[in-house]
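Lab notebook, bench 4. Still working through the backlog of constructs that have no structural model yet. Next entry is a single chain of 78 residues. Request: give me the structure tokens for it.
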Amino acid sequence: DLAENIVLKHAIPAKASDDALHVAYAAVYGMDYLLTWNCRHIVNDDTREKINRLIRENGYHPPVLLTPQTFLGGDNDL
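Model written out:
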């Protein structure tokens, strides 16, 4: 349901619904972080804010969405 809501509210486009599932699983299962190289649909400022808002609206705590490189301290895209 969360992934569907993320797509329906246009946080992630329908053509990338697998990305919405990826994010939803991380939120529903209480992951602290979601590491991904997907900067187009997940790890960018506009998308990240929309995704986090929708996750909270659906009663979950959003994971921190970031690239593995950022997680390891290689750049600062937060």
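Notes after review: The longest strand covers residues 33-35. DSSP finds four helices and two strands in the chain. Flag for follow-up if needed.
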